[in-house]
Specification:
Strand order of the largest sheet: 1-4-3-2
Oligomer: single chain
Largest sheet: 4 strands, antiparallel
Order of helices and strands: HHHHHHHHHHHHHHHEHEHEEH
Distance between the termini: 39 Å
Number of strands: 4
Mean pLDDT: 77
Helix content: 55-70%
Structural class: mainly alpha
Low-confidence stretches: 426-435
Radius of gyration: 26 Å
């Protein structure tokens, strides 16, 4: 059962960090981008290597003598886990620009020095006969706790400082949640001194520590993805379609976990092999399925008609009728009452908070964009976070908590009569797919 729980954690971690790595490498304007990417790559290697090791174990069983190939997998994922901790501390420290570098630097360096505790272990693993990572970890677990003590509390410290200094508040809440997770992870790692995580008959504490070590690093990624999905953190976007892919993959895996033991009632190896192949199919669905679907929709009108996400003409007709009904007799003119009515109709239709944006100092970059006052500004009637917009325009969206702003123009002259803003918290997560 523990093996299956670890398998679920590994699949979620691998897919989550593969997605984050893809998004981070597609964006070149992120704060502390290099450190953040290195951290995500390290954690991806940890989860992917652990998933590969578990998959091979399910398919072929545990070998009597660890092979060189399995030894290299263990070294790669073990080093990735060790390096990820100081990288996370370094990333958070780099974001905390208010701290004196003479204080911040030694704290970060101390975390990297903790890796030196394992140089001799890695050398023996490479030079001699390799050992399983579980056996190796048990033999050097006190060093692991020391390394975690040099990094996780420091990372929680920087996350706490950022929670009190950053704006907007939703970003501060992200750092508070991250600090809480890091403190909890360190406690779990420290409890490992009192437990035997890899014993044949584990008690509840052993299970908690084992799962904490295997999936503890999933927390920063899940928090990051949650804030991306709800608030477009760092102007990234996690669509509802991506979440559905993850749910589909987990559904296939859970089905394999339930059916496998039933098929292998007489032989546990049959159950393990069924789970292994079911996991592989699930991963292929999650990683390759979306690309194949996009290609099919791009080349086939039939597939696009059945699976494409479009707004039907009758829906647009109802929206148009609702907008025209706001001012049947023309008494509202082009004033604020008309804009308020349009905001209400669009809010009901989209299921997203829509507000009127008056022309103020904070919204001036948006008005200059839509009224073509900036020579280099693109000719658009909508500005959203996924566009390559200027820093002032993005800043205006951030200040008002918006994912997008729309220009309302008069039909005759095309003059901008007002701006409407779409709240980021609700609309942001699905915007990439046009949902």
């Amino acid at each position: 059962m523990i093996l299956y729980l670890e398998l679920i954690v590994q699949i979620v971690g691998t897919m989550l960090y593969v997605f984050l790595a893809r998004e981070l490498f597609r964006r070149g304007d992120l704060p502390s981008a290099r450190l953040l990417r290195l951290f995500v790559v390290a954690v991806t290697i940890w989860f992917a290597g652990t998933l590969l090791d578990t998959w091979l174990t399910l398919l072929f069983g545990v070998p009597d003598t660890p092979t060189t190939f399995l030894g290299l997998i263990d070294i790669s994922r073990g080093l990735a886990w060790l390096i990820a901790l100081p990288l996370l501390t370094h990333t958070l420290a780099a974001l905390d620009e208010s701290m004196d570098g003479r204080v911040r630097g030694p704290i970060v360096v101390l975390g990297y020095l903790g890796i030196l505790l394992f140089v001799q272990v890695v050398y023996r693993q490479l030079a001699g006969s390799p050992s399983e990572l579980a056996t190796l970890t048990s033999s050097v677990y006190p060093r692991l706790v020391i390394h975690a003590g040099l990094t996780l509390p420091a990372a929680a410290f920087f996350a706490g400082r950022l929670a009190h200094s950053v704006r907007p508040r939703r970003l501060a809440r992200f750092f508070k949640a991250l600090r809480l997770w890091l403190v909890g992870l360190f406690i779990v790692v420290a409890l490992g001194l009192l437990a035997r995580p890899w014993t044949a008959n584990p008690d509840p504490l052993d299970v908690v520590v084992r799962l904490g070590l295997a999936g503890g690093l999933i927390g920063p990624g899940m928090l990051f993805a949650l804030w991306v999905q709800r608030h477009n953190l760092l102007r990234l976007s996690l669509s509802n379609r991506a979440l559905r892919h993850l749910v589909i993959v987990l559904s296939v895996v859970l089905t394999a976990l339930l059916v496998g033991p039933a098929l292998g009632t007489g032989d546990l190896r049959v159950a393990h092999r069924f789970v292994a192949w079911g996991t592989l199919v699930a991963m292929l669905i999650g990683l390759i399925g979306p690309w194949l679907l996009e290609r099919a929709m791009a080349t086939s009108t039939t597939v696009r008609a059945f699976l494409g996400r479009t707004v039907e003409p009758r829906e647009l007709d109802r929206l148009t009728d609702a907008l025209l009904a706001i001012d049947d007799d023309g008494s509202l003119g082009d004033g604020d009452d008309l804009l308020d009515g349009m905001a209400t109709v669009l809010q009901d239709w989209l299921g997203t908070e829509v507000s009127v944006l008056p022309r103020t100092t904070s919204t001036e970059p948006l008005w200059r964009l839509f009224t073509r006052q900036d020579r280099d500004a693109p000719d658009v009637d909508i500005a959203h976070r996924l566009q390559p917009l200027s820093t002032p325009v993005i800043g205006a969206l951030d200040r008002h908590g918006l994912h997008a702003a729309l220009a309302v123009r008069t039909s005759a002259s095309g003059e901008v009569r007002g701006l409407l803003g779409l709240c980021a918290q609700v609309s942001g997560g699905a915007w990439a797919d046009g949902e």
